[in-house]
Design a protein that fits this description.
alpha+beta, 10 helices, Aminoglycoside 3'-phosphotransferase, Chain: A, domain 2, two-stranded antiparallel ribbon, 5-stranded antiparallel β-sheet, 15% strand, Phosphorylase Kinase, domain 1
């Protein structure tokens, strides 16, 4: 009997464990599915050591894009950045292939980011994030990869994305019109900046606390560069600020404490890499673009991941969040410059 056409398979953790032990010369490992998302992430461990194995979907990442991610992380690791990086197997390969039901799927084994996620960061941890992100950007601003990655610009973040998600708003015309008007407003504000003078390079583009582990207050490791692409480096600061916005939105901290915490981060970032006042002032607008991009990410992956939550209720709530972002940071004065 022929295999029925398949869109998104889930590979057996036990079978993967056997294959990876042989490929990498590992012993007595146990493999467990960690995340079933737009890609699948497994943890391999034996008590003494642990690793992360990530297997991609062709619909989400092409082989060329996976090679680019490996290339970027290899360079960053070689230059001393605090990142989780892909490991070589016994034959010197970093990318593995699997003949899954839907066709070839590719995966990489990563070093494990020691420590844990910390949502409520103290000042030492905030300083560490700032310092390490600044160091990372000093490197990514000088790199030109051989393999292609997505570019984050006004078209890809705002114009194309909003047009692409339009069908999802069939029952929410008022919400879509609000986003359309907000897009125009934000693009007009961004046009006032001399963005040609902004730092440019490869961005992580998802610098939320879920994507770095603290081993201790002074040591962290960044991971999950799945969104990595070329763009203004301030995009990463904007995605990190989204964390503080959410903390305020859900009454975990006050806006005053969020402002103070972000200033601690900014001060330490600038010890490693300078920022112009214009770059800092642009953060709310690039942050808005990040929210629109993420909405497009949810829409694009509806069939394989987001279908259990992506719908009118989710969109209405998410547009509500974006309204609050615009009211607090776009429509009002937002100034972290000068005394940072």
């Amino acid at each position: 009997m022929d295999i029925f056409p398949t869109q998104y398979s889930l590979l057996s953790a036990a079978a993967l464990n056997d294959v990876l032990e042989e490929l990498y010369g590992l012993k007595s490992m146990t493999s467990t599915l960690l995340i079933h998302n737009v890609s699948d992430t497994y943890i391999l461990e034996n008590g003494a050591e642990h690793y992360i194995f990530k297997i991609y979907r062709a619909a989400h990442r092409s082989l060329a894009e996976i090679r680019a991610e490996a290339e970027l992380l290899n360079i960053l690791h070689e230059k001393g950045a605090s990142v989780s990086y892909p490991l070589y197997d016994l034959k010197g390969n970093q990318i593995q292939s699997f003949n899954a039901a839907e066709g070839l799927r590719y995966g990489m084994l990563f070093s494990y980011a020691e420590g844990k996620v910390c949502q409520m960061m103290n000042d030492t941890q905030l300083a560490t994030v700032g310092r390490e992100m600044g160091r990372l950007h000093q490197l990514t601003s000088t790199i030109q990869l051989i393999h292609p990655r997505k570019e984050y610009n006004i078209n890809s973040m705002l114009i194309d994305t909003l047009e692409r998600v339009k069908p999802a708003f069939a029952e929410l015309p008022e919400e879509y019109e609000y986003l359309r008007e907000s897009n125009k407003k934000v693009m007009a504000m961004l046009a006032r900046f001399d963005t040609a003078s902004f730092g440019f390079g490869y961005c992580h583009y998802d610098f939320l606390p879920k994507n770095f582990h603290f081993e201790n207050d002074d040591k962290l490791t960044f991971f999950d560069f799945d969104f990595a692409g070329k763009g203004y480096l301030v995009n990463d600061l904007a995605s990190f600020y989204a964390h503080f916005f959410l903390q305020v939105l859900f009454n975990v901290m006050s806006q005053q404490e969020a402002d103070r915490s972000f200033k601690v981060f900014l001060k330490n970032y600038q010890k490693e890499r300078s920022l112009s006042d214009a770059e800092i002032a642009s953060i709310p607008y690039f942050g808005y673009a990040w929210w629109i991009f993420y909405m497009g990410f949810h829409y694009d992956n509806f069939e394989d991941w987001s279908n259990f939550f992506f719908g009118p209720k989710f969109l209405k709530e998410r547009v509500g969040w974006i309204r609050k972002w615009v009211e607090r940071y776009v429509d009002k004065a937002w100034d972290y410059s000068g005394n940072c």
